[in-house]
Design goal:
By secondary structure, the chain is an alpha/beta fold. It has 18 helices and 11 strands. α11 crosses α14. Bound molecules: glutamine (GLN). The site of glutamine has 13 residues, from loops.
Length: 492
C-alpha cells in the first residue's frame, strides 16, 4: 500500500506496517505533512504546525522499534490537537486574537499523556473562538472548510480537528465538547467523535469555556481508534478537581460483544420532527440494523429537550462570562495600545481582542448572573438542568443506549447561518443534553445524503458506560461499512 493511502487507514494497519518495518514512524509523519502541503490551503484546518516536535516523537518511536522495545498502541500515529489544549512551548490561541501570541508554558494533562504514548502531534487545529460556535466560522484567524465539499462548514467548534482527520492531514485528533463540539463536526465530516463522561478525562490545560460542561475527547475514522485514544487520555488527575477517581477499563475489550438483549431506545422528540428525509431514513435504517442483531428497540421520551437549548445557553454563557474574565490584558495575551488608564486598558483590550460571538456570550452570561436576574435565569436553568438529568436517569432504566441523529440535517453552506445566531444555536438540539447530564455520547457516520454529505447517528449511554457505548457503536459501524475516504482526493 502506498504511504498516502496508509496514513488514511485506521491506526491498527499503520501499526502493523511499523512493526513489520515496512514503513518508519518518521515516514508516516512526513507523509502527513506532505498531505498538509497539498490540501491545507483549501481546507484551512491548522492554526500552526509543530513539525519539529512531531518528527522528534516519530524518531523516538523508530529507535524503539529498531531496538525491539515495546511501543504503546498508538505510538507513531499522527494526531492534530485542538488549539484550546495546551502544548508546552507552542502557541495556544483558542482561535482568538486575545491569545494570538500566547506561548503555552505548560502541557495539558491529555497532552502529557499523548507525549508519554509517543503520539506525534502534527499541529494545533482551528476552532470557533474559545469553542463558541457550531461551524468554525467564528475563528479569529480563518474559516475551515469541509473536506467533503469545500463550500460547506466542517461543523464546530472542533472543525479543525475533524477537517484535519477527514482530509488525511492527521490520523487522529482531539477536540473538546461543551455542547456538541466533538460530535457535530464528526457528524458533518463523516467521522467518529466521542464525548466522554464528565470527569472521565482531565480538563487541566484545556482553556475553559463552561467548566461544568467541557470535556476533551477523540475524533477518529473508526470506533476502535476512538477506543484506543480514549484509553490514552482517560483517568483521574489531581490537577482537575472534577476529574473522577474511577478505574479506567480497556475500552477496546468489549467492542465485538454481540448485542442480543441490549436495549436501544430511540429518543422520540429527536427522531420525529424537523429532520431531513435522508437523516430520518438513516435513523430508521440504524434501528433496523440493531433489531436484526437481536437488540430490543424501545421508545424513549425526553420531554424536557424542548428547554435544553435555553438552559444550555444560560448555563454555558454564565460560566463563560466568569471564565473569560481572566483575559484582561494584564497577565497574558493581547493588550490594547494607546490607552488612557487601567480601566481604559481593560475595556479596549477586551473590545479589540474578543470577536462578536464571544462578546455576545459574555454579555448574555453577565446578564444571567447579575443580581436582579440570577434567580430568574441562572438558578432556574440549573433547576431545569437537574430535571433533564432526572429524565435521563429514568430513560436508562428502560434502555442501555439512546439513539437519535447527531444533528437534524447535514453540513450547511458556509455563511448561511452566521448572521443568525439563533439558527446556529439550534444545530445543537440533539447534542447539548448529554453535556447538561454529564453522560457519554458519540457520533457514528452511517451514510451520505442526497448531496453526498455524511449523516451521523448519535448514541448516548449512562455515566461511565463508554465501553458499552463503543460496543454498540462498533456494531453499527461494522454493519453500515461507511466509506470514510473523502472526495478530497479529487479536489487537489
Ligand atoms: N455549539 C455550541 C456552542 O456554541 C457548543 C460548543 C461546544 O461544544 N464547545 O456553545
Amino acid at each position: 500500500m502506498d504511504i498516502k493511502e496508509l496514513i488514511s487507514r485506521p491506526s491498527k494497519e499503520q501499526r502493523q506496517a511499523l512493526l513489520n518495518k515496512e514503513v518508519s514512524a518518521v515516514e508516516l509523519t512526513n507523509a502527513a505533512y506532505e498531505q498538509i502541503d497539498l490540501v491545507e490551503e483549501k481546507i484551512g484546518a491548522y492554526n500552526s504546525l509543530t513539525k519539529d516536535f512531531a518528527l522528534e516523537t516519530a524518531k523516538t518511536v523508530d529507535e524503539k522499534i529498531k531496538n525491539n522495545e515495546e511501543i504503546p498502541p498508538l505510538a507513531g500515529i499522527t494526531l492534530a490537537l485542538k488549539d484550546n489544549i495546551n502544548l508546552k512551548s507552542y502557541p495556544t490561541t483558542a482561535s482568538s486574537k486575545i491569545l494570538e501570541n500566547f506561548i503555552s508554558p505548560f502541557d495539558a494533562t491529555v497532552t502529557k499523556k499523548l507525549k508519554d504514548n509517543l503520539i506525534p502531534i502534527t499541529g494545533k487545529v482551528n476552532l470557533d473562538e474559545f469553542a463558541m460556535g457550531s461551524s468554525t466560522e467564528n475563528s479569529a484567524f480563518k474559516i475551515t472548510r469541509n473536506p467533503w465539499n469545500l463550500n460547506k462548514v466542517p461543523g464546530g467548534s472542533s472543525g479543525g480537528s475533524a477537517a484535519a482527520v477527514a482530509a488525511g492531514e492527521s490520523t487522529l485528533a482531539l477536540g473538546s465538547d461543551t455542547g456538541g463540539s466533538i460530535r457535530l463536526p464528526a457528524s458533518y465530516c463523516g467521522l467518529v467523535g466521542l464525548k466522554p463522561t464528565y470527569g472521565r478525562v482531565s480538563r487541566y490545560g484545556l482553556i475553559a469555556f463552561a467548566s461544568s460542561l467541557d470535556q476533551i475527547g477523540p475524533i477518529t475514522k473508526t470506533v476502535e481508534d476512538a477506543a484506543l485514544l480514549l484509553n490514552v487520555i482517560s483517568g483521574h488527575d489531581e490537577k482537575d478537581s472534577t476529574s473522577l477517581n474511577q478505574p479506567v477499563p480497556d475500552f477496546t475489550k468489549e467492542l465485538k460483544n454481540d448485542l442480543k438483549g441490549v436495549k436501544i431506545g430511540y429518543i422520540k422528540e429527536l427522531c420525529s420532527e424537523g429532520l431531513t428525509e435522508d437523516v430520518s431514513n438513516a435513523v430508521k435504517k440504524s434501528l433496523e440494523v440493531y433489531k436484526s442483531m437481536g437488540a430490543e428497540i424501545v421508545e424513549i421520551s425526553l420531554p424536557l429537550i424542548k428547554y435544553s437549548i435555553a438552559v444550555y445557553y444560560i448555563v454555558a454563557t454564565a460560566e463563560a462570562s466568569s471564565n473569560l474574565a481572566r483575559f484582561d490584558g494584564v497577565k497574558y495575551g493581547y493588550r490594547a495600545k494607546d490607552v488612557e488608564n487601567l480601566y481604559d486598558m481593560y475595556v479596549k483590550t477586551r473590545a479589540q481582542g474578543f470577536g462578536e460571538e464571544v462578546k455576545r456570550r459574555i454579555m448574555l452570561g453577565t446578564y444571567a448572573l447579575s443580581s436582579g436576574y440570577y434567580d430568574a435565569y441562572y438558578k432556574k436553568a440549573q433547576q431545569v438542568r437537574r430535571l433533564v438529568k432526572n429524565d435521563f436517569d429514568k430513560a436508562f432504566e428502560k434502555a442501555d443506549i439512546l439513539l437519535s441523529p447527531t444533528c437534524p440535517h447535514t453540513a450547511f453552506d458556509i455563511g448561511s447561518k452566521i448572521e443568525d445566531p439563533l439558527s446556529m444555536y439550534l444545530t445543537d438540539i440533539a447534542t447539548i443534553t448529554a453535556n447538561l447530564a454529564g453522560i457519554p455520547a458519540m457520533n457514528i457516520p452511517v451514510g451520505l445524503d442526497k448531496d453526498s454529505m455524511p449523516i451521523g447517528i448519535q448514541l448516548q449511554a449512562n455515566c461511565l458506560n463508554e465501553a458499552k457505548l463503543l460496543n454498540v457503536a462498533f456494531k453499527l459501524e461494522e454493519a453500515v461499512q461507511f466509506n470514510y475516504s473523502t472526495p478530497i482526493k479529487n479536489l487537489v
